[in-house]
């Protein structure tokens, strides 16, 4: 008994000690938090200069929505990791705020790091630049190197400069891809393909070694229209002769030769630039418009877009009113289930639409689509939620960005009205399914599969067994029924004959201009036009309604952690030391995970997809 009592007393003592240590650690943690907090609020927040140039420096690709989990993105930003994407809306908002802000005396567009952007996105930003210029403030564009996308924006500036050792390269538009049929045959893989649509080219790399005549015709039409739009827009903005861009690209070798091999001077002589300037000369020019930096007389007074937006959104963050038009952004491939931003999840995007449905202040919804499509099942889940909004008396307007094709068109066509940019890629009305089997591959290394079953279907859809003829027939019937559903839905929502839809369907892709002519959309315009149309459909008077963006948000716990890290960084603690660099094995594992994700991203329950290969660059 005494030994038992001794054991109990020891356990009680240990528990009291551990509990006491816990209380001490909690106290230390609370003291640390309070010290960080009071240290943060005791300092003065950074103020914008009273006179400065707004520096807009897009990095990577222009996108409608940043991809990845919001918490991971915010944490990466805190740790100084550069994200190779720039939101179109950020640039538009920054220019809009700066237009009437007396502190901003000029805009400096630094375009060296812009690598990719759809023409529709470029046109939207160009319109915002033109609107800013109406204020009388200058826009100065510069770059060490102008890619085609960056030069389009630069052309809409008041002055365009490039480094003397730089390069301006306009390659036009093209559409290229790899074809794998010979490799598949060499590996003895049976790549079973099912599709409806003479132009449904997504599956062609698995069935042939070159572009089909139908796909070649369709893509040639697209890229020729895009290149015409690009040239017309740049020529008009720069006030150049009508054939200036065509002449520059077709005779580039001769022009560079005439310039003694200096490609930068050749661009200047062609009227595409206003001057060649070193970085020091450019800083001196910008000092004339914005004044000198208060801490560095050799530099011009400047504020970055992110810093400027951060402060302006604190002052003007809430655009909502008692009655609102909600904006739901749907960007990326359409996959089943819940997905992170940058990918459209059937469940996650449907949840955002239900949030708009349940919000009494939301009277109409704009679905902003930038997607080449994907899972038919997930597309239908999203389309059902759009219809639920309409039943509830909340009109929905689909606003197409650079791409709204295949499944992207599927989720758009159910809207009350569909608005596209002239440079939107849309249509691609078609269905396909794929199922590879590897029994012949396995046979080469001495592996066979055999067994018994009670029905013709047991053991089917195994990748190690040849697909039977009755399974192939079943697959094809499912695909054909899916296509019939697609064109029937388009016919119903667009008030067209089913035969007409079939004639402009078959997987054919169209520009927004063609789509309007073919009756696939209602009008040409941008996001602001779609918002105005949605408000009109909901009988909301101009100036009497607000806007509410409905998107995935951080949880309270995630927000608390980020706020704590932000305060910690503000008081001078280097939080970068909290994160160790990944080991080579971790880096390899991360790359392998991305590769596997590309292979396994097709997760439609029936294996049926409406997806467009819409890579035009």
Give the key terms.
2-enoyl-CoA Hydratase, Chain A, domain 1; 6-stranded parallel sheet; alpha/beta; 617 residues; 23 strands; 8-stranded mixed sheet; 46% helix; 22 helices; globular
Description of the structure:
- The chain is an alpha/beta fold.
- The protein folds into three domains: 1-43; 52-174 and 213-314, 2-enoyl-CoA Hydratase, Chain A, domain 1, CATH 3.90.226; 318-555 and 597-611, 2-enoyl-CoA Hydratase, Chain A, domain 1.
Task: Explain briefly what this protein structure is.
With 617 residues, the chain is an alpha/beta fold.
Strand count, sense and barrel status of the largest sheet are:
8 strands, mixed
Helical stretch count?
A: 22
- Give the number of domains: 3
Q: Hey, roughly how much beta strand do the residues contain?
A: 15-25%
- Multimerization status: single chain
Beta strand count: 23
**What is the CATH T-level topology of the largest domain?**
2-enoyl-CoA Hydratase, Chain A, domain 1
Average pLDDT score? 88
Helix content: 40-55%
Write the layout of secondary structure elements.
Layout: H1 2-42, E1 52-56, E2 60-63, H2 70-78, E3 85-87, H3 88-99, E4 104-110, E5 114-116, H4 119-133, E6 139-146, H5 148-154, E7 159-168, H6 181-186, E8 190-196, H7 213-238, H8 244-250, H9 252-258, H10 263-269, E9 275-276, H11 279-290, E10 302-304, H12 305-315, E11 324-331, E12 334-335, E13 344-345, H13 346-358, E14 362-371, E15 373-375, H14 376-391, E16 396-405, H15 407-413, E17 417-420, E18 425-427, E19 431-437, H16 439-443, H17 469-494, H18 498-504, E20 509-511, H19 512-518, E21 523-524, H20 527-537, E22 546-550, H21 556-570, H22 584-600, E23 609-611
Parallel strand pairs: 1-4, 1-10, 2-3, 2-5, 4-6, 6-7, 7-9, 11-14, 11-22, 12-13, 14-16, 16-17, 16-18, 17-21
Antiparallel strand pairs: 8-19, 15-23, 18-20
Helix pairs in contact: 1-21, 2-21, 3-4, 3-12, 9-10, 13-14, 14-15, 17-18
């Amino acid at each position: 008994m005494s030994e038992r009592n001794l054991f109990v007393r020891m356990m009680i003592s240990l528990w009291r000690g551990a509990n006491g240590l816990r209380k001490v650690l909690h106290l230390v943690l609370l003291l640390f938090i309070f010290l960080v907090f009071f240290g943060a609020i005791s300092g003065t927040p950074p103020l914008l200069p009273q006179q400065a140039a707004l520096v807009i420096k897009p990095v990577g690709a222009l996108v409608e929505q940043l991809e990845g989990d919001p918490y991971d993105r915010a944490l990466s930003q805190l740790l100084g990791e550069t994200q190779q994407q720039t939101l179109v809306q950020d640039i538009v908002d920054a220019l809009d705020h700066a237009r009437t802000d007396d502190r901003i005396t000029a805009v400096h567009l630094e375009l060296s790091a812009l690598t990719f952007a759809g023409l529709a996105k470029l046109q939207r930003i160009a319109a915002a630049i033109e609107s800013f210029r109406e204020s009388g403030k200058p826009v100065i564009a510069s770059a060490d190197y102008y890619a085609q996308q960056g030069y389009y924006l630069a052309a809409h500036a008041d002055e365009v400069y490039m480094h003397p050792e730089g390069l301006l390269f306009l390659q036009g538009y093209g559409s290229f891809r790899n074809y794998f049929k010979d490799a598949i045959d060499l590996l003895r893989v049976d790549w079973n393909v099912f599709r409806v649509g003479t132009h449904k080219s997504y599956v062609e790399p698995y069935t042939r070694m070159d572009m089909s005549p139908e796909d070649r015709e369709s893509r040639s039409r697209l890229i020729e229209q895009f290149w015409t739009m690009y040239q017309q827009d740049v020529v008009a903005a720069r006030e150049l002769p009508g054939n200036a861009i065509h002449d520059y690209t077709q005779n580039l070798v001769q022009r560079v030769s005439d310039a003694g091999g200096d490609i930068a001077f050749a661009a200047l002589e062609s009227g595409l630039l206003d001057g060649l300037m070193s970085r020091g000369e450019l800083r001196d020019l910008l000092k004339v418009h914005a004044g000198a930096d208060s801490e560095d007389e050799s530099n011009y007074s400047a504020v970055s877009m992110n810093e400027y937006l951060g402060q302006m959104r604190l002052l003007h963050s809430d655009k909502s009113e008692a009655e609102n038009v909600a904006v739901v952004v749907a960007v990326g491939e359409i996959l089943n289930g819940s997905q992170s931003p940058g990918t459209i999840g059937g469940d996650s995007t449907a949840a955002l639409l239900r949030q708009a449905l349940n919000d009494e202040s939301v009277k109409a919804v704009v679905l902003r689509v930038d997607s080449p499509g994907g899972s038919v099942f997930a597309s239908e889940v999203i389309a059902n939620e759009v219809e639920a909004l309409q039943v509830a008396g909340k009109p929905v307007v689909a606003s197409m960005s650079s791409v709204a094709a295949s499944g992207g068109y599927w989720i758009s066509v159910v809207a009350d009205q569909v608005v596209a940019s002239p440079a939107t890629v849309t249509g691609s009305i078609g269905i396909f399914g794929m199922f590879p089997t590897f029994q012949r591959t396995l046979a080469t290394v001495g592996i066979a599969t055999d067994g018994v079953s009670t029905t013709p279907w047991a053991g089917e859809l195994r990748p190690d067994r040849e697909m039977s003829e009755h399974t192939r027939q079943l697959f094809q019937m499912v695909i054909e029924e899916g296509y019939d559903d697609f064109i029937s839905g388009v016919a119903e929502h667009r008030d067209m004959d089913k035969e007409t839809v079939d004639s402009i369907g078959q997987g054919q892709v169209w520009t927004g201009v063609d789509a309007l002519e073919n009756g696939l959309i209602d009008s040409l315009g941008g996001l602001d036009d779609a918002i105005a149309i949605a408000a009109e459909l909901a009988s909301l008077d101009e100036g009497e309604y607000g806007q509410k963006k409905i998107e995935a948000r951080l949880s309270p716990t995630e927000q608390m952690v980020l706020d704590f890290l932000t305060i910690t960084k503000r008081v001078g603690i280097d939080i970068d030391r909290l994160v160790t660099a990944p080991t080579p094995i971790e880096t390899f594992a991360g790359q392998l995970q991305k590769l596997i994700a590309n292979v396994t991203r097709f997760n439609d329950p029936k294996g049926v997809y409406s997806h467009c290969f819409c890579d035009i660059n």
